[in-house]
Write a structure and sequence with these properties.
Elements (H helix, E strand, L loop, with lengths): L5 E6 L6 H13 L2 E7 L10 H11 L6 E6 L3 H7 L4 E6 L2 H17 L4 E6 L9 H9 L10 H19 L1
Parallel strand pairs: 1-2, 1-4, 2-3, 4-5
Helix pairs in contact: 2-6
Length: 169
């Protein structure tokens, strides 16, 4: 089957989880290219830099030519225009996710009338997985295995270890 359309899947990915990976894999089932955008939100203070988050996503999809990782600090509407894409994929775990995403879509569609949104439900076995859960585990020295891929797990511990080492000096 030949895929022609592309989609954009954006998020903070702080850090990217197995839930994010599953969502991107689902996008690849439907689209020829998936642009994964690490969004920079000035209202948030992420644990990892945008470059670190992008690198972790690259580690999740080595050699996958249909996944394009970018960092972006504008609106989703601007991002879609820049990437020449119409479909904005949003993952939803709950009714509250759907309501929030729909409100965001109504605002974004005023900025980009060509924009379409596609809601993909989270896989049931991953409903408990979130970047917030991973960060909380890290805060309390609880293992993150099973919430992130093995590559991301190694990267996270290495990155945090380097920071701790710098703080001690």
């Amino acid at each position: 089957m030949e895929y022609k359309a592309k989609c954009v899947f954006a998020g903070t990915f702080d850090p990217p989880t197995i839930g994010h990976k599953a969502m991107i894999e689902d996008c690849l089932q439907m689209f020829g290219e998936t642009v994964v955008a690490v969004m920079v939100n000035p209202g948030k203070t992420p644990l990892f830099t945008k470059e670190e988050r992008a690198e972790m996503l690259r580690l999740m999809f080595p050699g996958e030519s249909r996944v394009k990782i970018v960092c972006f600090s504008g609106t989703a509407a601007e991002l879609l225009r820049r990437e020449n894409a119409r479909v904005y994929v949003r993952g939803v775990r709950s009714v509250s996710d759907y309501e929030r995403e729909t409100a965001d879509y109504f605002i974004s569609s005023k900025l980009n009338e060509d924009m379409l949104v596609a809601y993909l439900p989270c896989r049931q076995e991953l409903l408990h997985v979130s970047s917030t859960a991973v960060r909380n585990c890290l805060k309390f020295s609880v293992p993150i295995r099973g919430l992130v891929t093995e590559e991301v797990e190694k990267y996270v511990y290495a990155a945090l270890g380097k920071r701790t080492e710098k703080e001690r000096k």
